[in-house]
Specification:
Chain C: It is a multi-pass membrane protein. The complex is a heterotrimer. By secondary structure, chain A is an alpha/beta fold. Chain A is built from 18 helices and 22 strands. In chain C, strand 1 and strand 2 form a beta hairpin. The longest helix of chain C has 27 residues.
Chain lengths: 514, 351, 354
């Protein structure tokens, strides 16, 4: 791995956006035959450095050398032609086209009569089988696949051009453990063939599993480049957030004991709540001051159940009793009026409104609840905004900044503030910590614990089982759109317990707990 | 510290095998369903017309349907390209006006007919290019950019002339509407085609090939699916978007030739509202206005549905002409609601 | 001093970036052209007997009134990410209804009021149909209102039997031709509507809600914003305002011309909104901008006629205005200007250094 000259070398790269210095004189090197991980909190500049390399962003200063030659790419296509293929964080494929076509778009095999579809599909099948996707029907529309499989298709697409450099920007955020393991096998194979892989992830475990080297960024500046063997987890985290580990621990939100005893009438009781095709009839009970975890794999029906409780989707069976009274929650408006709030897992499309300011985003739900004819005065708005920006430690604490200029973690905090401002009795949080950095994650967990202590009932959904176990009083385990089990939390319950529950149920598959 | 433990789903390598189910196969076909529905309704209208009024399923009615609507078919093909990318072109009707007035005046001024025809087509291409440049290089929204082109073309046509410009009786351009008998039926019941119809057929075939067998065509669909994705996938989005407006303008120029040769005259108010007819034809034919899904052949059927509707209304005699636009609106509404229902079903099936 | 200069420069930047500013510039330019061709163009006459003001400016205001009314409604629709192509057709329906009703009546003020109420009620109902198609059925605004645009003119023709119906009613005619305080009633009413709607939208949270829907309809629904209700409201309001504009357009000549009344006026309204700096993609909107846009279009129409250019050529001048304003807004052209300014600044600096 060493000895060979770097295939990509970026020197003194600086990029400014209005009001922000996104990258400040950052150096970065990538060698053939290595997996090099970019680490950093959200907003540290990981995505920016990738977009600078591929030419999606124009760099203000600095130079980029590819295979020793100075280059400035004009965009993805340009970079691709030079052997740099990129798979972005969000799946960037066309859902309206077939799987095979998505793999081959722009690289179709052409004959005298235009595109030769047979040969094109053959080539697509070849690439897909490299990633173990040979079972896919090439002619099916891509939109019919789960996000995880779409992500794998996107990676297949990147392989079509046989790139020398492969950039994977958080490819694992929607994959489950098997899929991740599989992806890593492929990454190792490619690395051994001499491909340079630039990898971005938020999962520390994965960094240690796959990387040869890491580069750590913080606030758009380079912290350093390290071989992974020389860097233990604690040091890595403190380098990422710029605090030592003790400070980090004190931010921790672990609810050491789960001694909550449900007493009296539940705040919410749902019986046979379900919706055809998305959620089997399920019973749910929730008490004030309780954190109810919903655990299960992606697509197990956690989100669907949460949406039914909020009225985001209309249930077609079941009854909900709220504070002892039978209640019809048919729309988000109705739910908000009943003091229920819901933060969607899809922050980008169903959470923030990018072009509105932080202030407007924060007051939106309260204002919607009051109705448009009873506007919040500027003073009331300022009070709310100041309160939640301080309480949730939003940075920068500038209420007039458009939401799109905030990092993911801070956007999530503003959203949390939006829901808290409606003074909910029941708060449903769907993946509130996904794709955000360690520091913000700890702060959000702390906020959840504090809410429960104040008597708010919280439904907490996360793919990170340890997080669910740490925060919840009770855990509903879901699979295939139905409730598998309900666990009282306690010292005996761990992430492995939940894994076992899910695996035991899978009679038809050989469960293989780690 | 946060550590992720993602439970394994099983020992199978990769995601669980998913064999295409019946629903999936149906899902794949559902994009074609609105087009099939348009075809069914077209056939239904023919049967209804034949049963109620007679003399529909015969050579001269059907060939007249083609001859009288070939310009609309050509326009609809052009708009299909634009709408597939999620854009819109409001200028085509006005482009026809400017192109045909200019063409007739040039021909009458003694230009060789071939050159005049070429100019008519080129006028369309240039105006399409103007729209495309405004949209692609200056970030103007397609609605506004093509509105500007529409105003520009209409205004220029009016500056040239505000009275009907007649093509000279012996002009060779008129030959483009010469009726060629294919089948000589009894009395007037002949199957005839015109060079205009041939042009329309050739254009339709070319469009199908371009859309389904070239990278340009596939990029059109990809842009309609997601322009951002298409860009990040490294497809030539700018050139393609520019290209489709040139295609649409050029085809409007061709339609101007076809229409003018048949009518023998041109006027600055020719083609008012034709862009809406063409859009309606495209939508009825099953192309989604949001882009990414639809077929050229559907748009052809859509244009014929509109043409046949006019024939039936004329034949009925009892329907007042005022009702025409209400019926057009009604048909359009039925089709978009049908598409809406299909889209909803597809969403619920794929989750 | 340099501080003041830089503040002024920054200030100039925001003004210049404001599209409505260029609308005002265009209006002033057009008026200047008219003054050049006739120095007395701007003079306003006062008739002692009738107490009316008269002059070209008054004509422009009168011509702008219907555009302003429908542009305000259009502005709200566009803010939610929609579009209303049917306003011209709704105008002609309202006109046809009022002329048909008045035709068979005696001509009293009561008749006029009743007619007005029915015509506006029908216009609002047609707008509500648009709203239902968009918000409940979930059709695209372009298609829903295209259907209404096609059907509306047909409905008007059916109502009048294809005739251009004429009627007599002095009170009704006064609405369009009357004067209060020397100004045309139409214009005063248009201004009243603009002010009322602007106050309603900006003083309440309606503006924020509409913008939220226009920017991200899914997110705003989950935030509890009543998307359906608000969409239904804006399309109904747009229908109502189109109805008012239609009544005025027919009352001024007391004839409804089923094929010309309100014809293509939806395009003028959309243009007015866009000239005012509201994006057709939805989101941030400016009613004041739409007013400037409406005034610009009316000024342009009048100027073309005043200069003796055939009215049918007006569209070409509108095209020029759209293109110029679009280019001024475009990032590409702006960066070109910035680049040139930077170059100039640099050369000055170099000159100083040398």
């Amino acid at each position: 791995m060493t000895g060979a000259p770097p295939i990509v070398e970026m020197k003194d790269i600086s990029i400014s956006f209005p009001g922000v210095k996104a990258l400040d004189a950052v150096d970065f090197r990538l060698f053939p035959g290595e997996v090099h991980t970019l680490m950093g909190e959200n907003g540290a500049g990981k995505s920016t450095i990738i977009k600078a390399l591929t030419g999606v962003y124009k760099i203000d200063e600095g130079e980029i050398l590819v295979a020793g030659e100075q280059r400035r790419f004009g965009g993805t296509a340009d970079a691709q032609a030079a052997g740099i293929a990129t798979v972005y964080q969000e799946v960037n494929l066309c859902a309206n086209l077939s799987i095979g076509e998505n793999v081959m778009l722009g690289h179709e095999v052409r004959g005298p009569l235009g595109i030769n579809w047979k040969a094109t599909h053959r080539a697509a099948a070849e690439v897909l089988s490299m990633l173990g996707l040979e079972h896919l029907d090439l002619r099916r529309p891509l939109g019919t696949l789960s996000l995880a499989v779409q992500q794998l298709v996107a990676i297949s697409r990147a392989m079509v051009t046989k790139p020398k450099v492969l950039i994977l920007d958080e490819p694992t955020s929607s994959l489950d453990a098997t899929e991740v393991a599989h992806l890593f096998t492929i990454m190792r194979r490619l690395r051994d063939q001499g491909v340079a892989i630039l990898f971005v992830t938020h999962f520390l475990d994965q960094v240690y599993l796959i990387s040869d080297r890491v580069t750590v960024l913080r606030n758009g500046a380079l912290v350093g480049e390290y071989p992974i063997r020389e860097l233990d987890r604690t040091t890595l985290i403190s380098k990422m957030i710029g605090k030592d580990f003790a400070t980090l621990r004190s931010l921790g939100s672990e609810r050491q004991s789960h001694h909550y005893e449900p007493r009296g009438e539940p705040l919410l009781r749902a019986e046979d709540l379900g919706r055809k095709g998305s959620s089997e009839p399920t019973d749910v009970e929730l008490h004030r001051g309780e954190v109810l975890g919903l655990a299960g794999l992606l697509g197990s029906g956690r989100t669907e159940l949460a949406r039914l409780l909020y009225g985001a989707d209309r249930p077609d069976s079941g009854t909900i009793w709220l504070r002892g009274k039978k209640t019809d929650i048919h729309s988000p408006t109705a739910a908000l009026n009943q003091h229920i709030a819901f933060s969607s897992e899809n922050r980008r499309d169903e959470g923030i409104i990018r072009d509105l300011t932080v202030r407007e985003n924060l007051v939106l739900a309260v204002q919607a609840k009051r109705g448009w004819f009873r506007p919040l005065s500027r003073k009331e708005q300022d009070t709310l905004v100041r309160k939640y920006l301080t309480e949730l430690n939003v940075r920068p604490a500038d209420p007039e900044r458009p939401m799109k200029y905030l990092s993911g973690g801070n956007q999530q905090k503003v959203l949390l503030g939006r829901w808290l401002a409606t003074e909910p009795d029941l708060l449903i949080l769907d993946e509130p910590t996904r794709g955000i950095d360690v520091g913000a994650k700890a702060e959000i967990q702390a906020a959840v614990a504090a809410l429960a202590a104040k008597g708010v009932a919280v439904v907490f959904i996360s793919s990170e089982l340890e997080e669910v176990v740490r925060l919840s009083d009770r855990i509903i385990v879901m699979k295939d759109h139905r409730k598998l089990a309900e666990l009282e939390n306690g010292p005996h319950v761990t992430a492995e317990t939940i894994v076992a529950v899910i695996a035991d149920e899978g009679d038809d598959e050989e469960g293989e707990p780690e | 510290m946060t550590v992720t433990t993602r439970p394994p789903t099983g020992s199978a390598p990769g995601p669980a095998p998913s064999r295409p189910t019946l629903a999936d196969r149906l899902g794949a076909r559902l994009t074609a369903l609105p087009t099939v529905a348009a075809l069914l309704i077209f056939v239904g209208m023919i049967i209804y017309g034949e049963a109620s009024y007679g003399r529909i399923v015969q050579f001269n009615t059907l060939s007249n349907l083609l001859v009288n609507n070939s310009h609309l078919i050509i326009l609809a093909v052009g708009l299909t390209f634009v709408i597939l990318t999620g854009g819109i072109d409001l200028s085509v009707g006005a482009v026809i006006a400017f192109s045909s007035v200019a063409g007739v005046m040039l021909a009458n001024a003694g230009w060789p007919p071939a050159l005049a025809v070429l100019m008519m087509v080129l006028i369309g291409s240039v105006l399409g290019l103007v729209s495309g440049v405004l949209i692609q290089y200056f970030g103007v929204q397609p609605f506004i950019a093509t509105l500007a082109t529409m105003f520009l073309a209409r205004g220029l046509a009016s500056m040239l002339s505000t009275v009907p410009e007649r093509l000279e009786d012996d002009s060779a351009i008129r030959d483009l509407a010469a009726q060629l008998k294919i089948v000589d039926g009894d009395k007037v019941n002949d199957l005839v085609i015109t060079p205009g119809v041939i042009a329309a057929v050739v254009i339709v075939i070319a469009a199908v090939v371009v859309l389904h067998r070239t990278r340009f065509g596939r990029t059109v669909y990809a842009i309609g699916g997601s322009e951002q994705s298409a860009t990040l996938m490294g497809l030539p989005v700018s050139a393609t978007k520019l290209g489709i407006y040139v295609v649409s303008g050029t085809l409007a120029g061709v339609a101007a030739v076809v229409y003018t040769s048949r009518l023998g005259s041109a006027q600055n108010i020719t083609g008012i509202g034709w862009e809406l007819d063409a859009i309606a034809a495209v939508v009825i034919g099953g192309t989604l206005l949001t882009g990414g899904s639809g077929f050229v052949l559907g748009s052809v059927v859509g244009a014929l549905v509109l043409g046949l509707m006019n024939v039936l209304i004329t034949r009925d005699g009892g329907i007042r002409p005022e009702m025409t636009t209400i019926i057009t609106g009604g048909i359009l509404l039925v089709f978009v609601i049908l598409q809406r229902v299909i889209a909803a079903r597809r969403r619920s099936e794929t989750g | 001093m340099t501080d003041l200069a830089s503040r002024l420069a920054a200030r100039r930047g925001t003004i210049v970036r404001n599209q409505a500013f260029w609308g005002v510039v265009a209006i002033v330019l057009l008026l200047a052209i008219n003054v050049v061709s006739d120095p007395s163009y701007l003079s306003i006459g006062y008739n002692d007997e009738t107490g009316r003001l008269s002059g070209n400016l008054i004509d422009i205001l009168r011509a702008a009134a219907p555009i302003l009314m429908i542009a305000v409604g259009m502005c709200l629709v566009v803010a939610t990410g929609g579009i209303d192509l049917s306003v011209g057709s709704i105008m002609v329906v309202a006109g046809a209804v009022s002329m048909e009703l008045l035709h068979g009546m005696d001509g009293t003020a009561g008749d006029a009021a009743l007619t007005l109420a029915i015509a506006l009620g029908i216009a609002t109902a047609l707008g509500a149909v648009n709203g239902i198609l968009v918000s409940v059925v979930g059709l695209q605004p372009f298609i829903s209102t295209l259907v209404m645009m096609l059907a509306g003119r047909g409905i008007a023709k059916v109502i009048t039997g294809g005739q251009n119906t004429t009627a007599d009613n002095d009170s009704f005619a006064w609405l369009a031709n009357g004067y209060v305080l020397g100004l045309p009633v139409v214009f005063l009413l248009a201004i009243a509507i603009v002010v009322l709607v602007a106050l309603l939208v900006r003083r309440s949270a309606l503006g924020l809600m509409l913008e939220a829907i226009g920017m991200d309809s899914r997110a705003s629904r989950l935030a509890g914003v009543n998307r359906r209700g608000l969409q239904l409201t804006v399309y109904s309001v747009s229908g109502l305002l189109a109805g008012i504009a239609g009544v005025f357009a027919t009352a001024s000549v007391m004839t409804v011309d089923v094929s010309r009344t309100g014809y293509l006026l939806e395009l003028d309204a959309i243009l007015a909104v866009v000239i005012g700096g509201t994006s057709l993609a939805g989101g941030k909107f400016s009613i004041g901008g739409a007013v400037i846009g409406g005034l610009l279009i009316a000024t342009l129409d009048k100027t073309v006629v005043f200069l003796g250019i055939p009215a049918s050529a007006t569209p070409a001048f509108k095209a020029v205005v759209i293109v110029v304003l679009s280019l001024l807004q475009s990032e590409r052209v702006r960066s070109l200007f910035r680049h040139r300014r930077a170059l100039r600044a640099q050369s000055q600096k170099e000159a100083v250094a040398a």
